[in-house]
Each structure stands twice: as structure tokens, then as C-alpha cells.
Amino acid sequence: MSFLDDNNPCGQNLLNIVSVGNSITAEILRLKDYVPRIYRLDNKADKAKYGELILDFSYFKIAEDHEKKIEQSPELTELDDEARAQLPLITRFYLAFQSIHHYASDLQQYIEELNSGYYIQQTLETVLQEEEGCQLLCESLYLFGVILLLLDFHIPGDVRERLLIAYYRYSGGDATPSGDESNIHDICLLLRSTGYVHPLDAAKVLGLGGKQTAAGAASLVVPRYPEAYFSRFRFDENFVDLVVARLRCDDIYNQLTLYPHPAHRSTALSTQAAMLYVCLYFCPKVLHSQGSQMREIVDKFFCDNWTVSVYMGITVNLVDAWLDFRAARSAIENVINPSAIKALCQQQKEQLGKTTQKTEEIVREGVLNDNFVLEHANKIILLMRQSNVLLRWFCLHTSREVFIFAHAATLP
């Protein structure tokens, strides 16, 4: 029986969990463009008008006083009614936040069921021995990390807190849609602000000049990010270790057979490398102190690249991302240094020249016809593969990363 057969509940439940994870990422990417402007408080006019009404989690300390203040002020009452009119949209944000907590809880429950023998003849180890099972288990952990990163990047922590407080106030406190098990307090604990600042907002702070710039740069630093963020929900340690081990040691998508040339190894394993990068934050001991494992990881996945596409164009620079992780920093600095980068860039430039010349030779008018393609199919496939590998490398490494960790590094 195949792992993903309809009558295999173990495979179907895991497939459903991963499907939900992908749906959540899609919902975050949809909602990011619909955050009500008043909850951003990103200009002086909005701060002056709504600053007293729209609060972050500091509301919980002064809830009664805050409500009395609104009741006693006709102006604040009018603004409160105006904000309350957006409850349907705020509820959609809340449901998205709630689904993130659900996803983590469902995944943890699935792992507990595997460990307890709920699924006959299935354990974590046996699921990881199945090709589809290994892929889905690794993707399940990776997706939760991606969800957290995308959320923090597109919907800043202070905005999340204001939206959650607005839902809490306007929906009647602890009430949650359809009497759901996840209460708002658990969601607040998971999604409270991390302190991370979006690059566009960081650029405004760093552009102030003088002492304000230095003070602003200090406020942008979030030590060991996103380690603490990822640790807010604790998964089974054995599950995390097994997933990281599989991603580190195996070719879970069988890509090496499609990229047989040794120079294309990092491209073949690029999807797996992005998954491993995210999953390592759930296992920070490797990043901090497992020097031998980190050297193995870097040599296998990142020996000739340092910019990683984490998810749909969200790129990170490993040199900055691993700055606060001793073992990881040491491993990446061992292969990504000025002399190595210079040699690598020269090598890629030469390859680009050769590949461009070969491409121009066959795309001339009258050359690339049916007979030519049939006679030289293997050579054309090799050329296409080499072209794609080079194009990918140059696209990633000639532009600024999207998810910036070390904002202060951009200071002049």
C-alpha cells in the first residue's frame, strides 16, 4: 500500500496538514496588502488621531482604564465606532493568525500519534523511510518556519498586536469563531512582536542622520533572530532532529540524478538547502555549537552560494543571517571570504561567456530546426541546464537580499 493511498490515514493526515500549511502561506500573502492603514500608525497624522485608541499588547495592563477613557470621550467613542466597522476584515486577519496556531498544534498532535502507535506499523522512522513521507514530514516543519518568517516580514509585530487587540475588544474578549479550541491568548503568545523591522522601515530609521541614526540602528538589532521566535512553539525534539538529519544527509527529491555535473550540486539541492536553512532554527544547538555538522552542511549546500531563496523570492544572505550563531558563522566564513568570492565570480564570469557564445551559435536563424534539435538533443539539454544554473546564480548574487537581518550593516 502506497503511503498516500486514500485508505492510508497516516499518509492522508500528513498530506492534509501540509496542504493547510501551503494555504496559510497563500492567505498571508493575500492579506498583507489589506492591512487597515490605521493599524500601521506609520505617519504623524494617524498617530495623532488614532494613537490613543489603537494599542498593542500594552492594552492588557490598562484594559479597564482604557475602556473608561473611550466611554468618557465623545471623540474617542466616534473613532472607536469607525474602527469597529472594520471588524469583518479584522476577523479575517484573526482567523489567519488562529490557523497558524492550529497548524502547529495539528502537526504536534500528528507527531504524538506516531510516537504513541496510533497508526498501526507506523512510527516517525518508518514514515521517514517512505519517499513521500520523508518529503511531507520535512515540508511540514519547513512550512511552519516559512509561515512565521513571512508573517513577520509582511505584517510587522506591532501591527499584529494592534489587530489582535482590536479583535479582542470588538469581538467580546475571549470569544473565538465557532467556539474554537485555540483561544486568543495562545495566539497572542505565539505571534507577539519579535522586534524585527521591515527593511523599508529600517531604511527610514537609518536615514535620519546623526545621533538618531546610531540610536535607531541599535533598536533594529534583534539578537539571534529568529531563534527565540521559532522557540515559542516547541515541537518534539526527536522529530526536529530526524528532519534536520534527513535534510542534511539525503537527497529527498532525487534531484542529483537530474544534475549529474558536480558543479551543479548546489543548484540540484537548492530547494532542500532552503528547507534545511529554515529547519535549523528549530534546532539552534546545531547553529551554535555543532561545528562539524555545520561544516558538513556548508560544504554540501553552500560552498559556492551564500544567498538562499527561502520562499517565492524571499531571499536571505547567510553571512548576515548566521552572524549570531557561532558554529554556523565559522562554517560559512570558512568558504565565503573575499578571496573565495573573487575566484568564484571570475569562474562564473568565464562560464557565462562560454555559455553565451554556445547559445548564440545555435540560435542563429536557420540553425535551430527540427533536424538539428533531434541530432543534438543531448548537447542542447546540457546547454539549457548550464544556462539555467548560471542565470539562477547571477539573479541571486547580484541583487540585495530581501529578508535583511543585519540592518546596521547598511550604515555608511
Shape: globular
Strand percent estimate? under 5%
Number of helices: 22
SSE string: HHHHHHHHHHHHHHHHHEEHHHHH
Mean pLDDT: 91
Task: Describe what this molecule looks like in 3D.
The protein has 412 residues and is mainly alpha-helical. The protein folds into three domains: 9-193, no CATH class; 227-335, no CATH class; 338-401. Helix content is 64%, strand content 2%. The chain has 22 helices and two strands. A hairpin with a 2-residue loop joins β1 (307-311) and β2. The mean pLDDT is 91.
At a glance:
The chain has 412 residues and is mostly helical. It contains 22 helices and 2 strands. One of its GO terms (cellular component) is WASH complex.
Q: Secondary-structure blueprint of this entry?
A:
Blueprint: H1 9-31, H2 44-50, H3 63-71, H4 74-84, H5 87-116, H6 124-129, H7 131-154, H8 157-170, H9 184-191, H10 199-206, H11 210-220, H12 227-230, H13 237-249, H14 265-268, H15 270-279, H16 284-289, H17 291-301, E1 307-311, E2 314-317, H18 318-321, H19 326-335, H20 338-362, H21 370-375, H22 377-397
Antiparallel strand pairs: 1-2
Helix pairs in contact: 1-5, 1-7, 5-7, 5-8, 5-9, 7-13, 7-15, 13-15, 17-19, 20-22
